[in-house]
Specification:
This protein is α+β, with helices and mostly antiparallel strands. The chain is built from nine helices and four strands. The protein has two domains: 154 residues, no CATH class; 52 residues. Helices cover 47% and strands 13% of the residues. A four-stranded antiparallel sheet has the order 1-2-4-3, with helices on one face. Strand 3 and strand 4 form a beta hairpin. It is globular. Bound molecules: zinc ion (ZN).
Length: 227
């Protein structure tokens, strides 16, 4: 199921050609562009309950419910509207659109940014491919949020229970973003000790989370782990 959702490319820039597509985009704002494949044949449509997936997602990211969505996707998912299936027959597009909102929410969570807009554009061919554009002030956070959103949605769509690691990972990213001096420590061990005591986590757990943050480009453990 690993290629159910796949990121093909991630870019960072202004992308002036799409700015007119969402009036909320701020002039000259930088954006992260994510090219993603959502592979239709691998989705077991009968088992796919996007409303229930959204319910679990909101428990992790409650601020999702406060997003303004031009297409009312989140409202419809949240209310479990009866007409949901008829209104949203294209689940693939809904998943891509949900991913856009997850990237927005993760960035807002980590950096505290108060306003962030995005847009989801589908390809004609292949119809499983989408370009997501999301405003992004910090490239590292934007890329991290995109990579984490894929992991998160894959877990939501294929598993009943969302691992507690996601919450821990988001908390740690937020903490490190707010405590950048910790990232500038030449030694890893004192930082690990401080994170352990701050969150009450075991050293091994902290190291495994830091490994994930490194894999997703949030920190660099090789060169005195400076972000
Ligand atoms: Zn939306």
């Amino acid at each position: 199921m690993n290629d159910l959702l796949q990121i093909r490319e991630i870019y960072y820039g202004e992308f002036p050609e799409i700015c007119g597509l969402n009036p909320r985009f701020k002039p000259k704002s930088k954006k992260v562009k994510v090219v993603v494949d959502i592979n239709v044949p691998q989705i077991q449509k009968g088992n796919l309950d996007l409303s229930s997936a959204f319910g679990r997602l909101v428990r992790l990211l409650p601020s999702l419910e406060r997003h303004q969505c031009g297409e009312h996707l989140l409202e419809d998912l949240g209310s479990g509207s009866k007409d949901f299936l008829s209104q949203h027959s294209d689940q693939i597009t809904d998943i891509a659109h949900m991913m856009e909102h997850v990237i927005i929410d993760l960035q807002a969570n980590i950096t505290g940014m108060d306003s962030c807009s995005g847009i989801t554009c589908g390809y004609k061919d292949p119809s499983s491919r989408f370009d997501l554009f999301v405003e992004c002030r910090n490239k590292r956070v934007g890329v991290f949020s995109a990579l984490l959103s894929i992991d998160l949605l894959r877990a939501l769509l294929t598993k009943k229970i969302l691992s507690g690691r996601f919450r821990a990972l988001i908390s740690l990213a937020k903490y490190l973003y707010a405590n950048k001096s910790l990232l500038r420590l030449a030694q890893l061990e004192p930082a690990v000790a401080r994170i352990s005591s701050e969150f009450g986590w075991k050293r091994r757990f902290v190291l495994s989370l830091l490994g994930k943050l490194r894999d997703f480009g949030f920190i660099d453990l090789k060169h005195s782990w400076v972000a």
